[in-house]
Amino acid sequence: MRNLLVLSIVGCTAALHAQQCTWLRAEPLAYESNPSIPNVVVASAPERLVAAWQNSGVFIYGSDLYGDAALAQLDPLNGSPLWSCPLGDTVNVESAAVSSSGMAYFAGRFMGDMELCDGSVLGGIQNGGPWTVNLFLVAVDLTTGMVEWKRNLTSTHDQALGVPSLAIDPSGELWYAVLEWGVGKAVRVDGNGQDVETRIVDGVRNLGSISFDPWGGLYMSGAVDDDGFAFGGQAYQGYGGTGYNMFVLRFRPDGTAGFAAFAPDITFQDPTVVATSDGHAYLAGNLFDVSQWGDVVFGGPEWSSGLFLTRLDSVGDFLWGREAEAVVEGQITGDVHRAKGPCIAVDAADHVYVMADVRGTVGWGNGVTSGSGPLSQRMQAMIAFSPAGLAQWSLSSDPSNGYQESRTLTASALPNTVHFAGHFRDQLTFGPHTVGQIDQQAAVLGMVSSGPTDVGGMDDTEASRIWPVPASSTVRFHVDESDRGPATVMSSDGRFVFQVNLGGIVSELDVHDLVPGVYTLRTAKGRVMRFVKE
Predict the structure, then answer these.
(1) Dist. CA 499–CA 526, nearest whole Å
(2) How does strand 218-224 pair with strand 59-61?
């Protein structure tokens, strides 16, 4: 299954489409210390965009900043607030989700009592002190702007450390992921916010995200040690060796175990998994060393950190993998670190978008690079990939010696758009927009309009196939009978390379002597297929 790339035959008149930052807004934060700590979250559904951010930083407890916070619904077209709700006064926001019906959900932590915009108060647990961390879950009806219900989850999960992810299942019901030391839980709630189903994963050391496929299969990602792992009636042993591992799993719709897969690591990470419309999923996270998912091997970072992206199917086979690479062979040209929150998002066509922090310049293959400038400067970067794993485009904020860091992104509000969140100090420029003030920290929210995502109009859903990807010596084509006959191979800049004849069900092409890059094969009927020579 590895590296089978499904490509379409498309008309030869397709063109590239420019990407641009359409709007950018800043939400100032009254806080002067470590700028890597404040959280910003965004989530979307068709024609709906919600966000949460910190307004002030009163103190840091562990690695979390507590203070005033805000929940909001934004107009996805221009970022203007449609509804907002302040939370006070010792709050830390962590995750969000919104349903297509207009119910928005927010989760996080608070100390003492939490005051909401409707005048109500969510109390801390009984016998808890002023430094007791409580977990909150709030539901808001966006059609009315009313808080429908709120819960202190610590009353139910007294050992819980956080609520790193929320997800909406195919029936429109909310699930929340809760992390305890050694245990991960995915919990479904009813319309009143009460728990009605719990799925438990034993052996968890960190949780990344949860995500549902259209049939109700539940993906979960996170980290485990080597001491055993179990979920859905299935136990796993002997999967590790370093003491640190990433994991991804899938519950079948009935709650039984589908599969679990593991990859070696050097710490307990929180990789992001997002399901796609065909029941498969994307998985992404940081790379600090050589790692491997299934048969897909990742070589590790060029410098201090790298990033991996892989696609897997619903039975746990990994189809392809991509990682950041140096743009000049043998030289360190940059490094990349994933966004703090969910670092990938998927649109309705199953294109995947990655949000990351870049220093210097890194490459993603297919001629796509992120960043610019020296290694000492930071940028927030967004990278788009096709379902077949080809990098399509990248867009970065202007390089800066000041602080800027990505938080998360979402891609469901509008067609051909991605909304993102980050945090910065001083000023931030993204495309034609500049926000912020000198010596001030702020959350940043914005939108990138991409137009049709695929380079050259490539569409991965049609029947023509080309493999392996990338190819080193031989490429094999499977084409329709109507496209058999003479065909022309062209380089990515439109130069003629050579002519071949496509015959039979499968045709082979010797590419051993080709310069590495992306090539097009044009049939006599004027249709085009693309392949990659490594």
Answers:
(1) 14
(2) unpaired
CA dihedral over 492, 495, 499, 501, signed as positive or negative: positive
Question: How far is the C-alpha of 184 from the C-alpha of 201, rounded, in Å?
Answer: 5
pLDDT digits (tens, 9 = 90+) for 350-401: 999 999 999 999 999 998 999 987 888 899 999 999 999 999 999 999 998 8
| Residues 204/224, Cβ–Cβ less than 8 Å | yes
Q: Per-residue DSSP letters for 333-388?
A: -EEEEE-SS--EEE-TT--EEEEEEEEEEEE-STT-EEE-S-TT-EEEEEEEE-TT
Query: 3-state class of 475 per DSSP?
Result: strand
The DSSP H or E segment spanning 522 is strand 517-523
**Is residue 371 within 8 Å of 361, Cβ to Cβ?**
yes
Question: Contact 300/258 with Cβ under 8 angstroms?
Answer: no
Residues 164/270, Cβ–Cβ less than 8 Å: yes
Helix (H) or strand (E) holding 394: strand 391-396
Helix and strand totals (H; E) in the chain: 0, 44
Residue pair 406/395 in contact by the 8 Å Cβ criterion = no
Closest of 198, 217, 82 to residue 140, by C-alpha: 82
The label of the residue with tokens 């719990």 reads 198
Q: Are strands 229-231 and 306-312 parallel, antiparallel or unpaired?
A: unpaired
Residues 246 and 106: their CA atoms lie apart, in Å, by 26
Query: How crowded is the C-beta side of 75, counted as CA atoms within 13 Å?
Result: 8
Give the Cα separation of 93 and 108 in Å (integer). Answer: 4
Q: Is the pLDDT of residue 440 over 60?
A: yes
What does the alpha-carbon distance between residue 295 and residue 312 come to, in Å, rounded to a whole number? Answer: 11
SS3 220: strand
Distance CA(488)–CA(73), nearest Å, equals 51
Report the alpha-carbon distance of residue 529 to residue 390 in Å, rounded. 13
The C-alpha atoms of residue 494 and residue 502 are separated, in whole angstroms, by 20
Q: What distance in Å separates the CA atoms of residue 116 and residue 122, rounded to the nearest whole number?
A: 8
Query: 402 and 424 in contact (C-beta within 8 Å)?
Result: yes
Take residue 76 and report the two structure tokens written for it: 């996805």
- DSSP at 30: B
Dump pLDDT digits (tens) for 215-240: 999 999 999 999 999 999 999 999 98
Report the alpha-carbon angle 145-151-154, nearest 5. 150
Integer Cα distance of 122 and 392 in angstroms: 46
Continuous segment of H or E residues that includes residue 25: strand 20-29
